[in-house]
Design brief:
This protein is of the alpha/beta class. The protein folds into 2 domains: about 1-80 and about 175-220, 3-Layer(aba) Sandwich (D-Maltodextrin-Binding Protein, domain 2); about 85-175, 3-Layer(aba) Sandwich (D-Maltodextrin-Binding Protein, domain 2). About 35% of the residues lie in helices and about 25% in strands. The chain has 8 helices and 11 strands. It is globular.
Amino acid sequence: MGLYKVTPTSILPAEGSKPTRGIGYDLGEILAAQIGKQYTPVVFEKNADVLSAVKNNEVDLVFTNASADRAKYITFSKTVIRIEKGFLISPKSSLKSQAEINRPKIKIGYSVGSNSQAELPILIPNATLVQTSSTKQAITMLKTGEIDGFSTNKAILFEMASSVPGSRVLPDVIGYENLALGTPIALQGSTTYLNEFVDQMIASGKLKIFIQRSGIQGLAPN
């Protein structure tokens, strides 16, 4: 299972009484048990590394945004969860809306390899976009004011905000991510099984439990 660090949609480390968790991590563990396979979480620094691994057939399963460009090399299940996208604003900035962000000299970060890389130039063409290599780097840049804000799905933004005192997630919704389970496209015939598995997780209430355990924020209705 390809996962990436410190996001409730993927994997969160054990802390105190809380075990290792994350919606992707938990779904992968249950799926592996059902098909009688050893579960091996492979944790990467960022989602771009996960996508590279699945493209190169180095992992068997991922849980990520089922965008059209990724569907060229990933076979996806139906949507499992839908998440709002938006902006996290640095404590050093007074920005209050998307309209204020779309101005010259306003610096907005995004993750390399993310869909934001293609979407932000259309949404905020007047702002300056800054590529970051990881959420850890983005958090540091938000704290220092090196970037005025960061854009991705709100599940990640709220998790980042907990590490940046005084930062805030804007109420603006600039789009949605439809997260699904996926396998390398070379693994033929996985769609039916994945869809049945997703239906089972919903019907049994396990998906709801995984969502609650992850502490995810920013979910939108499917």
